Amino acid sequence: MNIHVHPLVVLRAALVIFTVAIVHTELFVELRVFDVAPDPFVLIAVAAGLTAGPDRGAAMGFAAGLTFDLFLPTPFGLSALVYCITGYLVGQVENTLVRPAWWISGVFAAGGTAFGVTGYVLVGELLGQKHLLSDLPDVLGVTVLYNAVLAPLVVRVIAWVWRAAEDAPRPLRVDRVLN
Amino acid sequence: MAVANRTGRSRATIVLLIITSIFLLTLDFRDFGPLESAQSSIRSVFSPVQDAADGVFSPVGDAWSSITEYDDLASENERLRLELEALQGQALADESASARLTEALAQLEIEYVADIPKVTAQVVGSVTNFDDFTIVLDKGSDSGIAVGMPAVTDLGLVGRVSEVDGDQARIQLITEPDFQLGIRVVGIDDVALARGTGENQPLLITEGLEAAEEVVVGDLVETSGLERSVYPAGVPVGIVSDVTVDEGTLERIISVLPTADVENLSLVSILLYETE
Prior knowledge:
heterodimer, A: 179 residues, B: 276 residues, alpha+beta, 12 strands, 37% helix
């Protein structure tokens, strides 16, 4: 398996995830509607899958989820697991689209967020987090709407991450062979 | 061919990431120390930037709160004003009673809660959208806080420190269904175990009180402070709100409403109390 990773892409991705973590923990958590805040980390996974396919969607979803897990009391790795699958599936579905429309990012954000949040709760319940299910309807309703609104902005930011490879004069290729 | 290669690579990537996630979850469930240290170290990288960002974003958050919670704030303000008047009167009466209690406890060689040093910290916003029965405070091990220390307000016990970083601490609230603590009902010598049952729900005492028939609604429940207990004796926990009998086992089930307003905390004190 060849993985092409441009260092500038990694740098920009890290910068975006770091910034989102700061903005989320200091601002978004205050902007609650019905006591629910947006979930920008699952939105990063969705935007990555939408703009760069399943491979990068999964990788960005994993990195964003792992960062989110640092601040959560739920088991470490739970968000990473669910969000990497979310990014992967969004990338797979996006591959089947013949002609993407301007509104598609909002629809993907809503669907991807619904999948990610529901998956987080269901896997969490399986892992013994028995208190998650009761809050699901409220959280689902608000985060889906919030993320659909934020989607155009986040998609642009994630597209900027991938453009790093195009902007650079001499891209560095990292080949790693697995299997 | 290229499409097939790409699909195969995508599958390999997702499988690798899923395995990594499951590996991390396994380590977390086993309380793998190096993983917890790594998490703590990474959080400490975020911490100074979060502090700086707080100054920038807090006016926005405050403005949002004042718009969305105006009615709640106005009624709470009124309620607090009335409570303040009542408490000022009560404080005068308590002052002399407290002096007498301290004197009596000193004679019995029992450590009085008011004498234990404490650190007061502010509750910071919860990051999660789900009720996780924890709160995060803006002070941590740098202020002397350690895992296991009791968290209280002036009204009583709210929980215990479950996780601590340099400048943050996570408190497990007494309402969490897994939370258990040793208690005693004031005026009755027996000790018992109380456990949390969820948000806005009373604690339950289902076993341990041999003299349960003597317990009546309105009795004060406090920490037992038994040997090796993580809580000092005499911290108010709650008021008995209901006493029922289990028809199957014929045991008494005692409901205890926490004296502290666990669902609306803004300032919490950590008693710097460690079991010897």
